[in-house]
Automatic annotation (TrEMBL):
It comes from Citrus x changshan-huyou. HAMAP family: Ribosomal_uS11. Belongs to the glycosyltransferase 4 family. MraY subfamily. The lineage of its organism: Eukaryota, Viridiplantae, Streptophyta, Embryophyta, Tracheophyta. This is Phospho-N-acetylmuramoyl-pentapeptide-transferase. Keywords: Membrane, Ribonucleoprotein, Ribosomal protein, Transferase, Transmembrane, Transmembrane helix. GO terms for biological process: cell wall macromolecule biosynthetic process; cell wall organization; translation. It comes from the Eukaryota. It holds the Pfam family Glycos_transf_4.
Length: 427
């Protein structure tokens, strides 16, 4: 029942720091207390009966599944924001290691949440067999998870850090030789807290990594039982894969001292916690990409564009495209730079427009221009307005290389239209 001395303290520190504004922290705290209650009932029955067996295995499993199922449905019903988008179904995404990206589980996310509660609670419970083993490895697992969930939910990161601090404080009394034991109350609560952090953020892979000691301990028990039953069925007599399960008892029977086993578990858990936190942060940080606009050219080469300059008497249009003429790179008119009377020409406005065009072309990597000059044409003037020469000089002075210059002014065809008149006879 030693969990009563440190689990509520970790939750209280979190609430005092964060408050009740975070749905994730409120849900994780409630789930931790709910699964701790199962352990408390088990410990109380053991004390009353004065026997090591409390709740039956099936009763305890059903209660753990009930807590995990309740939390998964609560998670599905609440409006907890997803870090991957504004839609609610994005809460069902599980980040995988960097090459694999995101995995959408849909409703299987709820099953994974319930399974995580059961497996983590029992994993920590099986690890609690040596002085300081479960408390120290759980503290390191909380640190790894706090680093992993920090970019997604800083409040849950505070929750994990508070629980880690509570575990460290408990280790002062639970280290070798221990005077207080956490019991099922503490072990189930620690497993439930880790599972709730993973379920609220989708960080199941970092949880699996940082809780590697718990995974090994639980796997050793499963392997021992399966191996014994299979060999009993095939050979007529059960055989054991380990001298004793969980795995830390096997190491004891191999001659290792208890403090040495615990110290080795701490070292392994530290490496796993750092790896879990680092792998997640590496996955979350976007890679900086060098984005270049415009055509790709080699050193010493010029990237050409086409400047279509339409110069009437009182305005100048400068329209720069790529060589195919399909993509517009920049388009500026003299009227956008200077407001002048329509009866007056404004070469100054054309110069300002050309300077802006040159600046934008350099940003896009265009260093040279082919020029296509156009006057009004048709039955009107065939000579470009005064802004054309001003624009050409401004482009050249700004450092743009000038390629060929072509006059594309339209000429009259066989049309009967006359300036100021109508086409053909009016009936």
């Amino acid at each position: 029942m030693g969990g009563l001395f440190f689990v509520p303290i970790g939750i209280a520190v979190t609430i005092a720091t964060v408050g009740f504004s975070s749905l994730q922290v409120s849900g994780a705290s409630a789930a931790t207390l709910a699964i701790a209650l199962i352990g408390l009932i088990d410990d109380v029955i053991c004390l009353v009966k004065n026997h090591s067996s409390g709740l039956s295995a099936w009763s305890r499993l059903i209660l753990e599944v009930a807590v995990g199922t309740w939390f998964s449905f609560w998670l599905d019903a609440t409006s907890i924001p997803s870090p991957y988008g504004m839609y609610s179904f994005l809460k069902m995404l599980v980040p995988l290691p960097a090459p694999l990206g995101l995995l959408f589980l849909g409703k299987f996310y709820l099953l994974l949440t319930s399974f995580t509660f059961v497996s983590m609670g029992n994993g920590v419970n099986l690890t609690d067999g040596l002085d300081g083993l479960a408390g120290g490895t759980a503290a390191l697992a909380f640190i790894g998870m706090s680093i992993a969930v920090l970019p997604i939910c800083s409040e849950l990161s505070i929750f994990g850090a508070s629980m880690a601090g509570a575990c460290v404080g408990f280790l002062l009394h639970n280290r070798y030789r221990a005077s207080v034991f956490m019991g099922d109350t503490g072990s189930l609560a620690l497993g439930g807290a880790l599972a709730s952090m993973a379920a609220c953020t989708g960080m199941f892979f970092p949880l699996f990594v940082s809780s590697g000691i718990f995974v090994v301990e639980a796997s050793s028990v499963i392997m021992q039982v399966l191996y014994f039953k299979i060999t009993k069925h095939l050979l007529g007599g059960g055989r054991r894969l380990f001298r004793m399960a969980p795995f830390h008892h096997h190491l004891e029977l191999c001659g290792l001292k208890e403090p040495m086993i615990v110290a080795g578990a701490y070292v392994i858990s530290s490496v796993l916690a750092l790896f879990a936190g680092y792998s997640r942060r590496k996955n979350r940080e976007p890679k900086e990409e060098n984005v270049t606009l415009g055509p790709a050219v080699r050193d010493g080469e010029h990237a050409f564009g086409v400047a279509h300059i339409f110069a009437s008497f009182n305005d100048t249009f400068i329209h720069v495209t790529d060589l195919s003429g399909r993509e517009t790179l920049v388009r500026i008119t003299g009227g956008m730079k200077v407001k002048a009377d329509r009866d007056e020409s404004s070469p100054y406005a054309a110069m300002l427009a050309a300077q802006d065009v040159s600046t934008r072309c350099k940003e896009l990597g265009i260093t040279a221009l082919h020029i296509k000059l156009r006057a009004t044409g048709g039955n009107k003037t065939k000579t470009p307005g005064p802004g054309a020469q001003s624009a050409l000089r401004a482009l050249a002075r700004s450092g743009m290389k000038i390629g060929r210059i072509e006059d594309v002014t339209p000429i009259p065809t066989d049309s009967t239209r006359r300036k100021g008149g109508r086409r053909g006879r009016r009936l």
